[in-house]
Design a protein that fits this description.
Number of domains: 2
Radius of gyration: 19 Å
Helix content: 40-55%
Number of strands: 7
Distance between the termini: 38 Å
Largest sheet: 7 strands, mixed
Mean pLDDT: 95
Number of helices: 10
CATH class of the largest domain: Alpha Beta
Strand content: 15-25%
CATH architecture of the largest domain: 3-Layer(aba) Sandwich
Order of helices and strands: HEHEHEEHHEHEEHHHH
Shape: elongated
C-alpha cells in the first residue's frame, strides 16, 4: 500500500512489533500500512466521526485485517485502557488539540512509551507542553507536501531541559540532525513573520506592538539558526 510521504515518515518512527493507537485515524491508511508491513502487531484505530469509521471498517475488512486492527469510535485517548498500547500516533491536528488530548487523559498517557505527534499548526505550543510535562523529544523530521511543511515529533516520557527558547519554534533535533529541509523551513518562517510585521507595523494598539516585537525577536533567533546551519 502506498502512503503519502507524511504518513510514511510517521510510520518510520513507529517501533517494530509495537501495539499502536492511531488517534483520529481518518481513512485508516496508516493502520493498514503498519500491519501489512509487519511493523506493528496490532493497531487500535480511533475516530470521533462515525461516518469516517464506516469507511475505515470497509477498508480494513476488504484487506482481511479485522483481527489485527481494532476500530473504535471516540474522542482522544478516552477509548483506550491503561497499558493497552505502547505507541500512540496523533497526527493531522492542531498542536493545541494534541496537547489537550494528552493532558485530558494523563492516566492513559502515562502508560504509553512512544508518542508520534504531527501538529498542523502551533507546534511551538505542543513542544512547550512536552517540555513542561516530563516528555523528551528523541527525534524529529520535516516533510514537505504540496508546498506545506509538516513537523513530525517522536517523544518519550522522560524529563528534558529546554536549553534555548528557539527550540520551541524549531525543534532541537531538526538542527542537530541537519534536516535536509531545515534551511527552507527556517526561511519560510522568517518570510511569514516578516509579512505579518509589515501588516501590523502601523497599528498602535498595545497588543499589536507587543506582537511586532515578539516576531522581531523570533526572526533574530531564526537568523541565528541559519548561521548555525551555514556554519556546519
Amino acid at each position: 500500500m502506498l502512503l503519502s510521504e507524511r504518513l510514511r515518515t510517521i510510520a518510520n518512527f513507529v517501533p517494530k512489533n509495537s501495539i499502536v493507537g492511531d488517534i483520529g485515524t481518518d481513512h485508516g491508511y496508516l493502520p493498514v500500512y503498519l500491519i501489512e508491513n509487519k511493523i506493528s502487531k496490532k493497531v487500535i484505530a480511533t475516530d470521533i466521526s462515525s461516518n469516517s469509521l464506516k469507511k475505515i471498517i470497509q477498508h480494513v475488512e476488504s484487506k482481511g485485517l479485522k483481527n489485527f486492527i481494532d476500530i473504535r469510535l471516540g474522542d482522544g485517548l478516552d477509548v483506550l485502557k491503561p497499558f493497552e498500547i505502547d505507541t500512540v500516533v496523533i497526527a493531522g491536528m492542531g498542536g493545541l488539540l494534541i496537547k489537550d488530548i494528552l493532558d485530558n487523559s494523563k492516566e492513559i498517557a502515562d502508560t504509553i512509551t512512544h508518542f508520534i505527534l504531527q501538529p498542523n499548526i502551533a507546534s511551538d505550543k505542543l513542544r512547550e507542553y512536552l517540555y513542561e510535562n516530563n516528555f523528551t523529544i528523541i527525534d524529529e523530521k520535516l516533510v514537505k507536501e504540496s508546498d506545506k511543511f509538516y513537523e513530525i515529533i517522536h517523544a518519550k516520557k522522560e524529563k528534558a531541559l529546554l536549553n534555548r527558547r528557539i527550540y520551541l519554534e524549531i525543534g532541537e533535533k531538526l538542527i542537530e540532525n541537519k534536516d535536509p529541509l531545515l534551511e527552507d523551513f527556517v526561511n519560510f518562517k522568517i518570510n511569514l513573520y516578516s509579512d505579518i510585521m509589515k501588516k501590523i507595523k502601523n497599528k498602535n494598539t498595545s497588543r499589536t506592538k507587543e506582537r511586532y516585537y515578539e516576531l522581531d525577536k523570533k526572526i533574530l533567533d531564526l537568523k541565528e539558526v541559519l548561521r548555525e546551519i551555514e556554519g556546519n
